[in-house]
Amino acid sequence: MFLLVLISFFLYSCNHYIQCKIAEIMASGRNAQMTSVLIENYYQYKHIQLIQEDECDEDENVYEMPIQEAIIESKIIEGKSLSAVFSFAGNCCSDYRGDYTISDQTITFSMILLNDDVCDCLCVYRYELQIKDLPDQVNNLEIKFQ
Fold first, then answer.
1. In 3-state terms, what secondary structure has residue 27?
2. Residues 6+ apart with CB under 8 A from 124
3. pTM
4. I need a surface site. Which of 2, 10, 76, 114 has the fewest CB within 10 A?
């Protein structure tokens, strides 16, 4: 029953394509591999590359960092391309993907947690994000978590 309520919530409230499709796959009982293939195809369509640079690093300072608050280490926006490196603290067993929206010359990349696994540890995740074929007016980046 709880799963049905959760899926209904995602279908009702999803504002990103990936989040909506994941909810549909969960509702249909299809497996995680189907989710992965769907996301890869969607990323190709939107010219997104989101690459986890390192394994989740259980740095001793991770417990002093705010959870799921991105630190943008570098960003380059040239023409219609964006390249950025960012990191954040999160649960060790988490699997993240993301999608973007554009508003007022700002691209907002929303990280979406794909699983609900919980472990007894925190670690630092580091990602490289590349997006191509952006509108000319984009000149800022923010990263949020859903």
1. helix
2. 56, 57, 58, 59, 62, 65, 87, 88, 89
3. 0.76
4. 2
